[in-house]
User: Which sequence fits this backbone?
């Protein structure tokens, strides 16, 4: 078990930190980090002013423990809540908070989870195929999902959430293994199975199982399904002038953020020939990022996990 500040800080480098601070523009007031992780973004926000307080939300109890050690110097200016980021409205209601000055959501998996030898997020370690962000929750893990879904459903998950061209071949092998009485139970088993299904060229930089592991993680945790509702709730909770910063790591996530921001900025998405707007677009926000911000070449070299990160931000009108 990891239990030191130094170890916590070395586990994770916050993605697009300078860009987040620039767009969040934190000043006196109350902020919410709905994906607290190990506290990197929260620490930077707290350092911006002695009159800032932050509520940190995370569904990973181990991450919360490490974050609170890392942020101990800020005392009662930081409080943590064990919950999913989609529960932000109820969390703030329970704390007696009505409106906040800013919200940050970093939708990526934390290094703590990816580097865990027992959580099943990475093919670098042979571990039970779990992948639940909240290890204490009772929803099904990745291995259980692969036992339940049909071959077609598994292929759809891997293709839609992983953009994996060989999804049907992978799904067929998973089901064949299941029917033989030896269902996929560990990360090593799945990684080897996928490796045999996906042709690999010498120039390929990523492991052939990367896309499949990403897809299963997204599906297990319902990451796509809950995003649009969260965005609308977050904007509702902002004070006038308050800002929402969202960092996504998947094209589907980024499209949802982009579409939701456009809708809430008043951009109608109805077909041009419609006699009247029926899409529900209303001007509630100003979009601060015309295009998503991406990590600099230097950051990508220093932190490879930043390569797929895209940041979008808006301000409440």
Assistant:
């Amino acid at each position: 078990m990891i239990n030191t500040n130094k170890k916590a800080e070395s586990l994770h480098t916050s993605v697009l930190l300078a860009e987040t601070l620039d767009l969040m523009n934190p000043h006196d007031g109350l902020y919410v980090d709905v994906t607290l992780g190990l506290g990197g973004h929260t620490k930077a926000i707290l350092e911006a002013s002695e009159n800032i307080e932050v509520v940190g939300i995370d569904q990973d109890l181990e991450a919360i423990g490490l974050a609170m050690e890392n942020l101990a110097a800020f005392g009662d200016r930081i409080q943590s809540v064990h919950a999913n980021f989609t529960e932000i409205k109820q969390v703030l209601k329970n704390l007696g908070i009505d409106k906040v000055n800013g919200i940050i959501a970093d939708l990526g998996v934390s290094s703590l989870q990816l580097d865990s030898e027992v959580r099943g997020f990475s093919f670098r370690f042979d571990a039970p195929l779990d992948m639940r962000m909240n290890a204490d929750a009772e929803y099904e893990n990745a291995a259980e999902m692969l036992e339940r879904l049909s071959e077609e459903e598994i292929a759809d998950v891997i293709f839609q959430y992983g953009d994996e061209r060989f999804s049907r071949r992978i799904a067929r092998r998973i089901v064949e293994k299941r029917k033989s009485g030896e269902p996929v139970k560990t990360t090593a088993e799945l990684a080897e199975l996928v490796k045999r299904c996906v042709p690999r060229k010498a120039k390929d930089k990523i492991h052939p199982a990367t896309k499949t592991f990403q897809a299963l993680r997204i599906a297990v945790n319902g990451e796509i399904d809950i995003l649009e509702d969260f965005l609308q709730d977050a904007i509702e909770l902002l004070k006038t002038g308050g800002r929402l910063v969202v960092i996504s790591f998947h094209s589907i996530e980024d499209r949802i953020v982009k579409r939701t921001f456009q809708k809430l900025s008043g951009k109608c998405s109805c077909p041009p020939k419609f006699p009247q707007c029926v899409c529900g677009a209303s001007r509630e926000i100003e979009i601060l990022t015309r295009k998503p911000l991406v990590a600099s070449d230097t950051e990508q070299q220093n932190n490879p996990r930043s390569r797929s990160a895209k940041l979008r931000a808006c301000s409440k009108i």
User: Anything to note?
Assistant: The longest strand covers residues 238-248. The two ends are 45 Å apart (CA to CA). Residues 1-11 have pLDDT under 50 and may be disordered.
